[in-house]
């Protein structure tokens, strides 16, 4: 039976109020709570559900980044993943590099399905899934809001959320699926599973092991905060409203 | 001015001793039934009541007073306006039980008063708009409703002082009001007291980043203070479900507790200074920002927790703890209450200084929340659990705290104290766990009518009361128990489809007597307000209460600040 690989990313926690670094080179990430990207959680949840329905034999979680990625992988293992792989690198990893690394790991592990979150909440790139599908020459179903696997025909039927509504595609496996918000509600990490996760294996690779060169195709020049919203003003009469609409907002 | 003293009659179906004291006989008539809170039912009940009283009372003055009032009241109730002739007030829910007589020494508002206030405050801060008054007259639980015709919204301490000075000379009763989220009817008028709403005094005056001392006005909303401090790297030492609406002045006036008390202690320890205005307009400037100041009697402690009856707080200076970055939250299930107790002990021992919250919910509270709130799901896999415990740790080192928590939890699971549990993996999951605990009040409001009690009990006995109440009430009401188990504080709430005297009779005074017997407090953190003003004897001795009355009379000779609340009506009226 096939195995499913899920790629997860360690990002600044969704609920944290982020701040731009004083030198405007990026967002403040030191001393800030980091967690698994919410879309990656959904991807992992979907993989676990497929495994629980008997259509897959194991779920492997993969993450790339500095040593602390291990925390995110432990969360994944606590949710129910069987094994984890950590590609250790302290460099800035942009989607194309991540896609190349994923391709290398897929060639080692040979999963039948690669599931990722549609985008990461720190860069909002929405590129990695599509790029890795291109590099592997695999079919892709992105923005999945429903996934149904058929093991005899080795296909996956994916409902995609697109601007015009829902598009249903049938993909031959192996394939790449990226998950959207409405696909499922991720489970919590229960104590027994957290305990089991401590003994599960996390294998380490480096980019050199995978023969991928990390080079950046672009530089981040500057990061700015959006302009602050001005406070609303309570007006006391219709005349004042008309005056403001005419003279300040200039819409009448 | 001579006070017209009619015989005060507080008839409590359930409080026989007080009743005997006043009337020297017991009434054997069956309890008055009411089915809804409508005025018309009250008229019928009142007629029955007044006939009973007339029979009993030998005092011709009383009977004539009553009969004249009944006639007036009948008329008044049909016209839906009843201040002048209606000197009796009844609690919105259930009871024929509580009737309070208005203090006739208080004057009523006239147009001169209104122009005076408009002069000091400006037109827009003198409110007679019916809709706004309707909201201000009703408490959060919709159980208490006053009939005030005037609300004032001062913007500075000077304005508060002028208002109170005037009210003192005119003998106008006032109710200080903050966020109006109190649960014992202490923040709304009983009759037509003037409401002084502190909401406009919401400026943050200063914050010292080294010492963490925050100085702000009393009308600042707790959540806003929390956001401000968040930016500075600090947190408020208290946190409650009402934080989106409650104001710090009100929190301090009621010595609010909340979920962080087990870690940061009570407001008595965290408030470094206060500025308050007394009933006669005197401004007491005790707004120190010093951690240590042993110069004389520390009067701010009298004001903290006095529920607006000794003075109106206008500014506060509060010590805020630094915000620690590592917060871990676990949602656990236990099979029985004994395990919860042992878990608490173990948590205090093994987690020590990082334990920042320990909350208990029983399975009925969980069901209530899951049934009535949107977007809430049980974090634990479906299974029958009897008790749920929420444990939070706060520290400076995430991995260290996480290891500590995990080690503690694995050990407790191994020894059978916990039957299952989850640890929040990110802030969203943590918020959803807290939503369950904090959403219980909201869910209760949606489920029907609430009879809410807030008790301090020895930890071993806490849940026994819940089980006894379940036996007493049977199918007539749902009984849930939840609360700050870390502080020995149980919130006991009965939920029924509609108000019913019979249910109330089963609850009071049994709950108070039970609590008193186990030397607990009948009001752990909610205060006495109006709901428990006459029950203080269950938790405090007569000598102590007498001294409280003397202090009240010293600081507020005319009794205009938040009358009818906190202290027993009989003691405040009979002496002087």
UniProtKB/TrEMBL annotation, chain A:
InterPro entries: ET-Flavoprotein_bsu_CS, ETF_a/b_N, ETF_b, ETF_beta_N, Rossmann-like_a/b/a_fold. GO terms for cellular component: mitochondrial matrix. GO terms for molecular function: electron transfer activity. It comes from the Eukaryota. Residues 24-214 form the Electron transfer flavoprotein alpha/beta-subunit N-terminal domain. It is found in: Mitochondrion matrix. Gene3D superfamilies: HUPs (3.40.50.620). Its main location: mitochondrion. Keywords: Electron transport, Mitochondrion, Transport. Coiled coil: none annotated. The keyword Transport applies. The keyword Electron transport applies. One of its GO terms (biological process) is amino acid catabolic process. Heterodimer of an alpha and a beta subunit. The electron transfer flavoprotein serves as a specific electron acceptor for several dehydrogenases, including five acyl-CoA dehydrogenases, glutaryl-CoA and sarcosine dehydrogenase. It transfers the electrons to the main mitochondrial respiratory chain via ETF-ubiquinone oxidoreductase (ETF dehydrogenase). Belongs to the ETF beta-subunit/FixA family. This is Electron transfer flavoprotein subunit beta. It comes from Nepenthes gracilis. The lineage of its organism: Eukaryota, Viridiplantae, Streptophyta, Embryophyta, Tracheophyta.
Automatic annotation (TrEMBL), chain B:
It comes from the Eukaryota. Keywords: FAD, Flavoprotein, Oxidoreductase. The keyword Transferase does not apply. It comes from Nepenthes gracilis (Slender pitcher plant). GO terms for cellular component: mitochondrion. Belongs to the FAD-binding oxidoreductase/transferase type 4 family. Residues 25-98 form the CUTL domain. Its cofactor is FAD. Residues 144-323 form the FAD-binding PCMH-type domain. This is D-2-hydroxyglutarate dehydrogenase.
């Amino acid at each position: 039976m096939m195995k499913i690989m899920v790629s997860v990313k360690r990002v600044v926690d969704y609920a944290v109020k982020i701040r731009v670094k004083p030198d405007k080179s990026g967002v403040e990430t030191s001393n800030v709570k980091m967690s698994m990207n919410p879309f990656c959680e959904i991807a992992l949840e979907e993989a676990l559900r497929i495994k629980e329905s008997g259509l897959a034999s194991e779920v492997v979680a993969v993450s790339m980044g500095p040593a602390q990625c291990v925390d995110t992988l432990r969360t994944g293992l606590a949710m129910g993943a069987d094994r984890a792989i950590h590609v250790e690198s302290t460099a800035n990893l942009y989607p194309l590099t991540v896609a190349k690394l994923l391709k290398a790991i897929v060639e080692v592990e040979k999963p039948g399905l690669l599931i990722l979150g549609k985008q990461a909440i720190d860069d909002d790139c929405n590129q990695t899934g599509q790029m890795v599908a291109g590099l592997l020459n695999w079919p892709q179903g992105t923005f999945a809001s429903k996934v149904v696997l058929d093991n005899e025909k080795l296909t996956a039927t994916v409902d995609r959320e697109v601007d015009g509504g829902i598009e249903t595609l049938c993909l031959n496996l192996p394939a790449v699926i990226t998950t959207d918000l409405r696909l499922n509600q991720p489970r919590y990490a229960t104590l027994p599973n957290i305990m089991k996760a401590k003994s599960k294996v996390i294998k380490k690779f480096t980019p050199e092991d995978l023969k991928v060169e990390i080079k950046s195709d672009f530089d981040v020049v500057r990061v700015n905060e959006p302009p602050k919203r001005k406070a609303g003003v309570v007006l006391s009469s219709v005349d004042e409203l008309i005056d403001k609409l005419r003279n300040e907002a200039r819409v009448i | 001015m001579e006070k017209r003293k009619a015989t005060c009659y507080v008839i409590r179906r359930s409080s026989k001793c007080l009743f005997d004291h006043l009337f020297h006989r017991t009434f054997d008539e069956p309890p008055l039934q009411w089915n809804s809170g409508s005025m018309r039912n009250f008229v019928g009940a009142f007629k029955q009541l007044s006939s009973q009283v007339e029979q009993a009372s030998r005092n011709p003055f009383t009977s004539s007073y009553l009969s004249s009032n009944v006639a007036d009241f009948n008329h008044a109730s049909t016209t839906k306006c009843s201040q002048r002739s209606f000197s009796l007030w009844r609690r919105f829910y259930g009871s024929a039980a509580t009737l309070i007589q208005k203090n006739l020494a208080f004057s009523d508002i006239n147009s001169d008063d209104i122009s005076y206030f408009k002069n000091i405050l400006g037109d827009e801060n003198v409110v007679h708009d019916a809709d706004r008054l309707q909201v201000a007259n009703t408490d959060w639980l919709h159980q208490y409703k006053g009939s005030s015709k005037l609300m004032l919204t001062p913007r500075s301490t000077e304005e508060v002082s002028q208002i109170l000075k005037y009210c003192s000379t005119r003998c106008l009763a006032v109710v200080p009001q903050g966020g109006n989220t109190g649960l014992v009817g202490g923040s709304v008028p009983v009759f037509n007291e003037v409401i002084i709403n502190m909401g406009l005094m919401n400026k943050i005056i200063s914050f010292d980043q080294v010492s963490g001392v925050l100085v702000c006005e009393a009308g600042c909303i707790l959540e806003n203070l929390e956001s401000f401090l968040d930016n500075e790297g600090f947190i408020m030492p208290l946190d409650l479900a009402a934080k989106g609406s409650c104001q710090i002045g009100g929190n301090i006036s009621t010595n609010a507790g909340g979920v962080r008390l087990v870690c940061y202690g009570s407001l008595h320890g965290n408030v470094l200074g206060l500025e308050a205005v007394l009933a006669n307009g005197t401004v007491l400037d005790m707004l120190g920002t010093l951690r240590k100041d042993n110069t004389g009697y520390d009067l701010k402690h009298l004001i903290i927790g006095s529920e607006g009856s000794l003075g109106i707080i206008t500014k506060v200076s509060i010590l805020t703890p630094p915000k620690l970055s590592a917060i871990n939250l676990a949602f656990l299930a236990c099979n029985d209450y004994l395990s919860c107790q042992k878990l608490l002990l173990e948590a205090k021992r093994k987690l020590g200084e990082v334990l920042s919250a320990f909350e208990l919910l029983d399975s009925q509270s969980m069901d209530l929340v899951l049934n009535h709130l949107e977007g809430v799901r049980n974090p634990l896999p479906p299974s029958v659990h009897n008790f749920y415990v929420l444990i939070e740790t706060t520290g400076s080192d995430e991995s260290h705290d996480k290891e500590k928590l995990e080690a503690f939890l694995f050990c407790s699971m191994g020894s059978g104290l916990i039957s299952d549990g989850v640890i929040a993996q990110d802030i969203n999951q943590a918020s959803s766990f807290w939503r369950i605990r904090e959403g219980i009040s909201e869910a209760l409001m949606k489920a029907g009518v609430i009879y809410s009690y807030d008790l301090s009990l020895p930890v071993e006995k806490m849940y026994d009361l819940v089980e006894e109440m379940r036996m007493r009430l049977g199918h007539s009401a749902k009984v849930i128990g939840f609360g700050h188990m870390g502080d020995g504080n149980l919130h006991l709430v009965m939920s029924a489809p509609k108000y019913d005297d019979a249910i109330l009779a089963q609850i009071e005074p049994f709950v108070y007597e039970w609590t008193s017997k186990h030397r607990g407090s009948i009001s752990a953190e909610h205060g006495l307000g109006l709901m428990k003003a006459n029950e203080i004897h269950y938790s405090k001795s007569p000598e102590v209460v007498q001294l409280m009355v003397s202090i009240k009379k010293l600081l507020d000779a005319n009794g205009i600040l938040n009358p009818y609340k906190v202290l027993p009506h009989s003691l405040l009226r009979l002496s002087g």
